[in-house]
Every structure is written in structure tokens, then in C-alpha cells.
Amino acid sequence: MNIIISNSSNVPIYEQIKEQIKSKIISNELKVGEMLPSIRSLAKDLRISVITTKNAYEQLEKEGYVETIPAKGTYVANKNVEIIREEQLQKVEQLIDTVVNIARVSNISKDEIKSMLDILYEEE
Amino acid sequence: MNIIISNSSNVPIYEQIKEQIKSKIISNELKVGEMLPSIRSLAKDLRISVITTKNAYEQLEKEGYVETIPAKGTYVANKNVEIIREEQLQKVEQLIDTVVNIARVSNISKDEIKSMLDILYEEE
DNA sequence: TTATTGTGTATATACAGTATATACAGTTTT
DNA sequence: AAAACTGTATATACTGTATATACACAATAA
Lengths: 124, 124
Known about the structure:
Two copies of one chain form a homodimer. The first copy, chain A, has five helices and two strands. Chain A is mainly α. Chain A has a two-stranded antiparallel ribbon with strand order 1-2. The first copy, chain A, starts with 12 loop residues before the first helix and ends with a helix. The A-B interface holds A 23, 26-27, 84-85, 88-89, 91-93, 95-100, 102-108, 110, 112-114, 116-118, 120-121 and B 23, 26-27, 84-85, 88-89, 91-93, 95-100, 102-108, 110, 112-114, 116-118, 120-121. The structure holds a DNA duplex.
């Protein structure tokens, strides 16, 4: 499944999993209707408890990205594409807002940030 | 002291305090040598426990922003300005990196982000 | 000097979030 | 029918965050 978790991170494991799967759904690497790895196999893969993978899947279900059928599996849900994009735009806006606030108190110019953006956009 | 905390936030109270005081130090609203409010008065102000304000001050001390003298008070330390700026630049860079990663999977263009930046920079 | 008030400190405690192992229940495949 | 797969529920432990309360030192007022 190609998920990488860090135990030393302050971000909970279930959230790391959630975010990475969400990215795969949004980028269409995981397609609508496709089955996710079972909580057991994923747990075994990542060497963590099934409860943690279950927790991650539960969160994804709450946000509408997947659907779980007991004893069958968890599948990518048919979530509205426009809503997803809107959510992502809002997340980005929130981050940019934080950036701007830091920049203000630290006298970091808009140009400095734009060149950061240019550089990071080029990479890879 | 003009600090605003939110109990409903998922960010710990002590960290909210820490960040806001840090901002005041960086923007020079709190000047080197100046005494911070006592943990007691701040706790009373914000209607929280002294342990929480103490925790916030301890974190600030660890990061070198303040110095605490037992039974006397906590004072703004003489931290190197260049180091502070470097830290803030790194924080911004990390945020922009997150933004770029989200933008990639969601097909959000660099121009969209730049105009967000323009808009948020203008405000206030 | 002595008492009071103002500092930060330490201890014991509670609660919530995160994580675990293990036992349970339904579905599919053999 | 048995075996192998799904997700579920329960009991438990650890850590982070927050609390109240008692303690110790410094500065100030009587």
C-alpha cells in the first residue's frame, strides 16, 4: 500500500495513515469503488495494531472518503469532486494565512515567500 | 497582556500562549529585559491553572526567548535576532512545502496560491 | 525586624487521546 | 462444513494536558 509512518512524529499514526490515503484518493491513485487493504493486512504491513488502522478508516469514513461494510471491507466512496477541491482550497488558504501572519511579525516580504513557492514548486 | 485562548481548539492552551508571546517578542511589542506577567496573574486573567502558564513559560525558556528567575519573575531574554529570523523562515518554508504538496495532489495552480497570498497580504 | 504579598516550584491527581492485545461475529472461499 | 478472510467490541495501558493545593524564596510595608 506504500504508506510511510513515523513513530517519532507528534502526529498520531492513525492521522498519518488517514492523510496519506486521502491524498491517494484525491490524486486518483485509489479509484472510486476500489477496496482498501484490510485493516488487518495494513496493520501487519505497518507493524501496528488493527485498532489504529481501524481508527484511521473510521475517520476517513466520517469525512466521506470511504465506505465500510462489516465483514467485507472498506471501499473508496463516490465523494463529490468539487467538494473535495473546495476542502483542499480551504486547507491551503488556512496555511497561507498562517504564513502571512508569521511573515508580518518577522518582516518577511511577500517576494521572499513567492520565491520559496517557485523553488518548491519546481522540485521533483 | 492581551492574549486570546480557545478551549475548543485542538492546540494545547500552553502552546497557544507560547506562540502568542513569542510573536510579541519577535515583533518587539515585548522588549528585551521586560518582565512578563507573572504566571499567577496571567493564569487569573485567562482563568486557567498556574501550571498551564508555567508550562508555557518553560517552553519559551527552553527555546531561549525568556529567562526565569525563581521568586522574581520571567523576563524577555536577549536572543540573537538573526537566529530568530532564521527560525521563522524555516517555519514558513515548512508551511509552504505542505501547501505545495496539497496543491500537487489537488491540481491547484501556483497562480491560485499566489493570488491567495496577494489577497491575504493586503488585508488589515 | 516581622508580617504580608508577590514571585516561581513541586506534588498528587484527573481526564482525554492514542495505542495495544485479544476475543468476537459475519462473509467468502475451499 | 471448515478454513480463511473481513470488520467489531472490550478491557487495558501509557502519555500529554490540565487542575488544585501546598511549598519556598524575594521584595515590600508596617
